[in-house]
Design brief:
Blueprint: E1 16-17, E2 24-25, E3 33-42, E4 45-55, E5 60-64, H1 71-77, E6 88-96, E7 99-100, H2 108-114, E8 115-118, H3 130-140, H4 147-160, H5 164-167, H6 180-192, E9 198-202, H7 210-223, E10 228-232, H8 236-242, E11 245-250, E12 258-264, H9 265-270, H10 275-281
Parallel strand pairs: 5-10, 5-11, 8-9, 9-10
Antiparallel strand pairs: 1-2, 3-4, 3-6, 6-7, 11-12
Helix pairs in contact: 3-6, 4-6, 6-7
The chain binds adenosine-5'-triphosphate.
Length: 286
């Protein structure tokens, strides 16, 4: 196959140019993600019970709730990472623009490419250059693009992740040499390079200092037209600052996690319908 091939996805569907000269694009932009009656188990321990939630396109949805109520498990179900754990099982459906990502005909790699994930601890490939970190996902997803396309893509993704100006003169230096906050923005850039339609973030700032946290929050704000975002956070101020919608999870006394209340973030914080939501967002427990 020629190196000049713009993009070849041998796995699933033909590529679509995005018309911005920035390289490949597989989806049709930000998508709505909908969980329908999702339950989850580790062995015979049920940790989520019939959770339904719509995460609208081009919006940021925050998942909040005390430790152990199943937020991360729910997030991992949204891009088929839960099934990697041997004892794990689930029921229900996850629909990306109304297409079930768990349909038998759909590949796990396809779901992962369309629904990216940024983790709590920044996890760039430390010895790999900043440039190669950004394009690493292309190879992993069997996406080919020419050198020029890669250069454009690296600049575009680093710009979107709010890192370009800081690293443009040292793209060949190792990703591991960046600060923690820069590494996290590099991981966001890496996720964006495969043009996800949804980006999941699992406490992306919990390992970062306040300045780096603010930069990530600005990045999240700037990305909302690019990609639908679902973020798990323990930081109520952060949820209030970055999200349009919130879902409050709770697992009471050893019962599986459920969503107690969800809705617009402003309403959830200022006029919650459920007393438990009010107690949680006002710091009275959790
Ligand atoms: N790999 C695993 N094997 C077995 N049980 C697990 C595993 N991962 C999570 N659990 C259990 O599932 C439940 C939900 O955990 P989960 O990490 O999803 O909660 P969480 O709300 O994200 O918590 P936190 O806010 O502390 O990260 C907990 O009871 C936890 O112990």
């Amino acid at each position: 196959m020629s190196e000049n091939t713009d993009l070849v996805d041998t796995a699933v569907q033909p590529p679509v140019e995005d018309g911005r000269g920035g390289g490949p694009r597989f989806g049709d932009g930000p998508a709505t993600l909908r969980a329908d009656a999702v339950s989850a188990w580790f062995g015979d321990h049920k940790v989520l019970d019939r959770v339904s939630l719509t995460m609208p396109a081009r919006q940021v949805t925050a998942l909040i709730g005390p430790s152990g109520c199943g937020k991360s498990t729910f997030l991992r179900i949204l891009n088929r990472m839960h099934e990697l754990i041997g004892s794990a099982s689930l029921a229900g459906r996850v629909l990306l623009d109304e297409v079930d990502i768990y349909d038998r005909g759909r590949r796990i790699t396809h779901a992962r490419r369309e629904i990216g994930m940024v983790f709590q601890k920044p996890n760039p490939f430390p010895a790999m250059s900043i440039y190669d970190n950004v394009v690493a996902g292309l190879r992993l997803n069997a996406i080919r693009t020419g050198r020029e396309g890669k250069d454009d893509l690296v600049e575009e993704c680093l710009t979107k992740a709010g890192l370009w100006k800081e690293v443009r003169d040292r793209l060949r230096q190792p990703g591991g040499a960046l600060s923690g906050g820069q590494q996290q923005r590099l991981c966001i850039a890496r996720s964006l390079a495969v043009r996800p339609r949804v980006l999941l973030m699992d406490e992306p700032c919990s390992a970062l200092d306040p300045t780096s946290t603010r930069r990530i929050e600005e990045t999240i704000h700037d990305l909302r037209d690019e990609v639908t975002i679902v973020i798990v956070t323990h930081n109520m101020q952060q949820a209030a600052r970055v999200s349009d919608n919130c879902a409050f999870f709770l697992a009471a006394h050893g019962t599986p996690g459920v969503i107690v209340e969800h809705g617009g973030t402003h309403a959830m914080f200022n006029s919650p319908q459920d007393e438990r939501t009010s107690d949680y967002v006002n710091g009275r427990f959790g």
